[in-house]
Amino acid sequence: MNPDYEVLKLINITKSFPGVKALDNVNFTLLKGEVHALVGENGAGKSTLIKIISGVYKKDSGQILLEGKPIEINNPRDAYSRGISTIHQEFNLIPNLNCAQNIYLGRERINKFGKVDDKGIYNSTKELFEKIGVNINPEVLIKKLGVAERQLVEICKALSLNAKILIMDEPTAVLSEKETDKLFYIINSLRNQGVSIIYISHRLDELFQIADRATVLRDGRLIRTVKMKDVNKELLTKMMIGRDLSEQYPKDNVKRNVEVFRIENLSIQGTSKKISFKLNKGEILGIYGLVGSGRTELARAIFGLDKIESGEMFLEGKAIKINSPRDSINKGIVLIPEDRKNQGLVLSLTIENNITLPHLKSFSKCGIINKKKIFSTTQKLIEKLNIRPSVPKKITKNLSGGNQQKVVIAKWMYQNCKVFIFDEPTRGVDVGAKVEIYKLINAVANQGAGVIMISSDLPEILGLSDRILVMKEGQIVGEILGKDATEEEVMKYAF
Hints:
- By secondary structure, the chain is α/β, with parallel strands linked by helices.
- The protein has 17 helices and 22 strands.
- The strands form five sheets. It has a six-stranded mixed sheet with strand order 6-7-8-3-9-10, with helices on both faces. A six-stranded mixed sheet has the order 16-19-20-13-21-22, with helices on both faces.
């Protein structure tokens, strides 16, 4: 980091949308060769700010300086031409093209015969991969790569544009610990090469590993810019939400000794491993394991998405068969999936449409839907779960991650289900909304439902679980009471 060289400076940036001021005179400075974290709750203004920097939005007022010179960024092409590239959470890659074709898409080199110079872009891509220490064949199709490898292709695409500034939005959201370490190695390499990085993440712990400074936004306003070495997680959190998190993992003490659900010797298609466990009413059963341990596969099998080859399931003491998600829902066993945007919601529909979609029969008579009943029911659930904005007709894709997750939970709270399976319930959710979701998980348990909570966030597992099951290679390798669990003991089983 060069403390004397400001590669980007934003002065009094303001941006308004109908009914809301998204940014209010925000100042931000990015230094050459710096990793600068941009933090704040959902709705704080982070996305608006990076969209102004990347040319998606135009500022209403204020000034942007690039290497000391005033500039206007009118569109994304403007940003690219000035060396500003963004790697979004959802990658902009074409699955059926290879790495080299994706990196140089729209900028193909033409040889003397008037054809695309495939060899040239292959060699350039290979050089880019070597520059950041990536071992990927430039000719492999994107659809054959894992998430971490696709992200590296996005980074190389940005570098091919001679990016001076790289914006990374939740880059580790779907990465394993090992993949995250690899990404951090590459980020450090880019920093040493003089690339400046704006880094957005809800995972505060990792900011202390990778970031030099952090700028905190709240309600569209600049709160403070700090050096990471001068703050701790508690102070950073307080700046973000404007209050102390006196109890990050709220937990209620309820008797949990009546069985609600049990599986015996369950074998999922494609594995010979057999899984057995029981779940009590009002209990939060945490399931932890490293990537590839089989946690999500277990959840999908219970919910009827993946085929069960053998074994038995019992609900309230009675043997049950689940062949499809519809079977599972009818029996009161529901899944809040890891990928809420693609598997838990129809983003183009409204809040009320999403909440009531699985229950339309209960809102109709003689084939006529009672829209008034739908609206009033949705309004009650919105208030109960504190979904913001509290507008049933609001399109779901325009909500923050935390509020989208609340909509998924509300969908099943209407039904008074017996077993709730939460798969990564707070992934991509800000620190303030996390506590609200934890309270909702407790509320579900306190109503007598059994809760299975799958999470790769170890403090979350330790903070909320009554019991913890640790999975490895498709089987349960350890069981620990929540009150006795430590990080060391859980990780000992996981490894």
